[in-house]
Amino acid sequence: MREIKVAAAQLGPIQKAESREEVVSRMLALMEEAKTAGCNLIVYPELALTTFFPRWYHENRAEADEWFEAEMPNAATQPLFDKAKEYGMGLSFGYAELTEDGHHFNTSILVDPQGKIVGKYRKIHLPGHVEYEPERTHQHLEKRYFEPGDLGFPVWRTMGGIFGMAICNDRRWPETYREMGLQGVEMIVLGFNTPSVNNLRGAEALNQRLFHHKLSVQAGAYQNSTWVIAVAKAGSEDGNHLMAGTVIVNPDGEIVAETKTEGDEIIVHACDLDDTVFGKETVFDFKRHRRIEHYGRITAQTGVILPPED
Amino acid sequence: MREIKVAAAQLGPIQKAESREEVVSRMLALMEEAKTAGCNLIVYPELALTTFFPRWYHENRAEADEWFEAEMPNAATQPLFDKAKEYGMGLSFGYAELTEDGHHFNTSILVDPQGKIVGKYRKIHLPGHVEYEPERTHQHLEKRYFEPGDLGFPVWRTMGGIFGMAICNDRRWPETYREMGLQGVEMIVLGFNTPSVNNLRGAEALNQRLFHHKLSVQAGAYQNSTWVIAVAKAGSEDGNHLMAGTVIVNPDGEIVAETKTEGDEIIVHACDLDDTVFGKETVFDFKRHRRIEHYGRITAQTGVILPPED
After folding, report:
1. Which UniProt keywords apply (chains A, B) (predicted)?
2. ipTM for the complex?
3. For B68-113, what is the HEC assignment?
4. Domain for residue A309, yes or no?
5. Which residues in chain A are closer than 8 Å to B285, comparing Cβ atoms?
6. Strands annotated E in chain B
7. Structural domain includes residue A305
């Protein structure tokens, strides 16, 4: 038994006008709840410190830099690191990262119970678009404000297990989980900000969006025999609604905990990392069953290559 | 609109003593039902002509050759081809294939409405084991009796669309769907024979097995925006129970039809191949969103390579 008690810390909406300090105080309140519940790890969503700013179009991209963090930790977030260390609790959250040399990433970090950043991940599967698209009900400009992550899908040995990270749209791509599964990942933590309506197909509303989210996360967990902690920022940000659906998924792909609200809310589950062993040694024993000689297209081509016409 | 009306033709159990001719007459009865329902395509399960023989151990492997077909069509199966052609109906079913040069495969074929075999697929992800394993509640000797498929995951243009095939355990592997998705597949037909109890973990019983099956199929459909027709052989074969769970899944990953019994039963759905377009052009537009530079492990390594110990 290698039990780790996890708090999936969903955040309610963050309005444009809300400061980092206000958000961090909400995060600290959830951390205190997690402490009371005896948790060893708390996981916050993608872009946890600000509103989901890629919905706002700036002709001049540099204007969006106000949403980015040039250092981590910084003055606003230091209290999260201090309190987690005091509580002996690991920590993960997402933020917009501006590097010293001027690159922009959608990033998340993993902090160990000693307050040390042990892992950094930069979102690889950026959804959305680069330019303003008037036919959309709302903009989703991640491809404008971020570059695709340049760190691959690493995993880290910490807290007695093997951990990986992903961010939002990454969770819809089986390659995300498989890259980490091939490194023996036992727990993937991921945050998301997902509009509750498809901005190109209004008929695809909340229930179907939640279904697609859960389907992807549950399949990724099952097919790699890993825990997945998927954490939402939810609710209405300046009139733009994000879905909830924060879930803890076990290595059988089953949801073992789920939030009930669209606000700040933790859900807690004692996750035994040894529960990953059975799947990894049987149906998903990759060494015995995978046939990489037939997977060539997955890495040889990015897009579809149709079969020849008759 | 490119509508194709599909019959997923579940077969009930086939006992060891049952002849090919008896099974084919059951298959013809289902085909007649499909004709009455106006179907253009009928899909039968894996190893549709015989019992699921890999549960039976033969020390001398050649004794298992009685379950294999050396030609296709042959005398026993010719009526399927004739009737499908008469009805103008496409056809797919699985069988154990013995090649002229003595190779053994778990195979399925796709037959067009003119009765011509247009596609052949040989199962790549063979589950189970090679030798008799007394600790199992039942044997699953696919790795003993079959070689892994050597044809990759091709797709075929036929019946106005792009079709692919997979067999049973292939459906648990996201690589299966992705290989075909990267060729623009619009409908995947697959059959399965799945014991309703995990032979290494009795607590994993019918409900959980059905869940894993559906989860994998639905995720594969959604993440590649393709129809999937997944067809069971079900019920108790000489005391060994196979689960049902025959489903038709749309390109949103939703189950649109499902069998209610564990016997011979067709379910019918009019599948519009154009329903695959939206997903392929938006969230799963591979060309815009996939990042193959970060997928290297998927084809470079078969098994897990753990991160270094600290």
Report:
1. Hydrolase
2. 0.97
3. CECCCCCCCCHHHHHHHHHHCCEEEEEEEEECCCCCEEEEEEEECC
4. no
5. 303
6. 3-10, 41-43, 90-98, 104-111, 117-122, 155-158, 161-167, 187-192, 227-232, 235-237, 240-242, 247-249, 255-258, 265-272
7. no
DSSP element (H, E) containing A216: helix A206-224
Q: Write the CATH number for A181.
A: 3.60.110.10
Contacts of A280 in chain B (CB under 8 A): 304
pLDDT in tens, chain B (310 residues): 999 999 999 999 999 999 999 999 999 999 999 999 999 999 999 999 999 999 999 999 999 999 999 999 999 999 999 999 999 999 999 999 999 999 999 999 999 999 999 999 999 999 999 999 998 888 999 999 999 999 999 999 999 999 999 999 999 999 999 999 999 999 999 999 999 987 777 777 899 999 999 999 999 999 999 999 999 999 999 999 999 999 999 999 999 999 999 999 999 999 999 999 999 999 999 999 999 999 999 999 999 999 998 7
Radius of gyration of chain A (CA): 19
Q: Note whether A215 contacts B216, CB cutoff 8 Å.
A: no
**pTM above threshold 0.90:** yes
Q: Say which of A46, A97, A186, A262 is annotated catalytic.
A: A46
**What is each CA distance from A113 to A4, A41, A87, A121, in whole angstroms?**
12, 8, 8, 18
Q: Establish if B307 belongs to a structural domain.
A: no
Q: Which residues of chain B does A303 touch, with a Cβ-Cβ cutoff of 8 Å?
A: 182, 285-288, 290
Which residues constitute the domain of residue A43?
3-300
Number of domains chain A is built from: 1
A46 flagged as catalytic: yes
